[in-house]
Design goal:
- The chain has 2 domains: 86 residues, Immunoglobulin-like (Sandwich), CATH 2.60.40.1180; 299 residues, Beta-galactosidase, Chain A, domain 5, CATH 2.70.98.
- It is 7% helix and 45% strand.
- The protein is mainly beta.
Length: 422
């Protein structure tokens, strides 16, 4: 067959176009649901083994389904390990898999994002124009007329439900040291001295914000990393930092389903000794983990607790669980709650908890919940080591089922596997 000059040029152009298109493909991936059904689940893939300089190129992700490519919002988390995150949207049944493709290119510009906003008092995380939570980095003083010994920083308040209900409370008159969502330690020992970082009125210790490490905003997640210090007042003066603490807070851009309006928030705490001596966290019913003082609207006749083991507010205290659903009613604005999830890598998992009984606070029944990894056993923190506690919060309006709680915990504990395919 003879080819004229035009035909040769056309074939060369088509061949070049195909090669250029192929060159844009960086990797093809298979996401496997595994043993669990997945609905709108965060997924990650490490880019370090692909031999690419992520700082020099822009990445775009597509899902391949029935011969059609659909762009999927993705977000790069740069660090010692570069990780690409996206949401496995919709329902993926157990045993099923889905195919994705990473390409070099520019993502669409019309993607919704989770954003952060920093001012002189707080850092806010928002979805669109709707606030999700505030992290207080400035010192919070107690109400006027209350001893300023209760001042502190480094906590979450407010935490909003998707409809705008405020779920947290700070400086309640019965416990001025309760601060929304926070996690100080109560009974501790440094050398031969006892220090309480929780009960501020004792004047033995406090927790202070010490600086931000990073911020993130994007179509998949938004959040921050903050440093906090557990400061002991061993002698009169400014105090001595005994425990370094890093908070990693991340909100996922999860699409709500038809039955529930939800937010998904991760809180990871990394602990390390600030001196060359160990710090002993003594076994006690309060301390560490993740603590939650609920809105004053929730009392004994309009709130609930349900654990993964089927316990309620009457018998949950001191028991262990993988997840705990804590919620209540608001006058004129429905029901809201938080599903607290403990990761299986956490110390002493399934974790014990502190739950105030229905007759707490002179029978009023105010709500307090805490995952407490030192409830039954001492925990010695050694110099030169790091210790992590990982929690996830599903913040919702309405009610959620135990089946949904189990599914969300499975996503957290056993996320989908991602592998490279040829």
């Amino acid at each position: 067959m003879k080819l004229n000059l035009f035909s040769v040029v056309l074939l060369l152009l088509l061949s070049s176009t195909c090669l250029n298109a192929q060159d844009k493909v960086i990797a093809k991936l298979k996401v496997e649901a595994g043993d669990f059904e997945r609905i709108n689940t965060p997924v990650k893939f490490s880019l370090n083994n692909l031999g690419i300089e992520t700082g020099n190129i822009s990445l775009v992700l597509f899902e391949q389904k029935k011969g059609v490519k659909k762009e999927v919002p993705c977000q790069l988390e740069a660090g010692s390990v570069d990780i690409l995150w996206w949401i496995l949207e919709g329902t993926t049944r157990s045993g099923e898999s889905r195919i994705f493709q990473i390409e070099q290119g520019s993502p669409s510009s019309d993607q919704d994002s989770i954003t952060t906003n920093l001012d002189h008092l707080s850092l806010s995380i928002l979805k669109g124009e709707n606030p999700i939570l505030n992290y207080r980095h400035a010192i919070q003083y107690p109400p006027e007329g209350v001893d300023p010994i209760y001042k502190r920083s480094g906590f979450i308040h407010p935490l909003w439900s998707p409809s705008g209900n405020v779920l947290t409370r700070i400086n309640p008159p019965d416990h001025y040291h309760h601060m929304g969502i926070w996690n100080p330690w109560t009974k501790t020992h440094y050398k031969d001295q006892q220090i309480d970082f929780w009960n501020l009125s004792l004047g033995q210790g406090t927790v202070r914000f010490a600086g931000f490490n990073s911020f993130s905003s994007g179509p998949v997640f938004g959040g921050f990393s903050a440093r906090q210090e557990h400061v002991a007042f061993l002698t009169p003066g400014e105090g001595m930092n005994l425990l370094n603490e890093t908070w990693l807070v991340r909100t996922w851009n999860i699409r709500s389903d038809k039955n529930n309006q939800i937010y998904l928030v991760d809180l990871t705490t990394i602990l390390s000794c600030a001196t060359n001596y160990p710090l002993m966290l003594d076994a006690y019913r309060y301390g560490g983990g993740i603590g939650f003082r609920a809105t004053e609207e929730w009392v004994n006749d309009n709130s609930w607790v349900l654990t993964s083991e089927g316990r309620t507010r009457k018998d949950a205290d001191a028991s262990r669980a993988q997840w705990v659903d804590v919620g209540g009613e608001f006058k004129g604005s429905g029901r809201s709650g938080i599903l607290f999830l403990s990761h299986p890598s956490n110390r002493d998992h399934p974790e014990s908890m502190r739950v105030w009984p229905p007759d707490a606070n002179a029978g009023r029944g105010d709500m307090f919940f805490e995952f407490c990894p030192i409830r039954h056993n001492d925990w010695e923190l050694l110099p030169g080591r790091q210790y992590a506690l990982k929690y996830r919060m599903l913040v919702y309006d309405g009610i959620i089922s135990s089946d949904m709680a189990d599914r969300i915990w499975n996503d957290f504990a056993f996320p989908p596997e991602v592998t490279i395919i040829k």
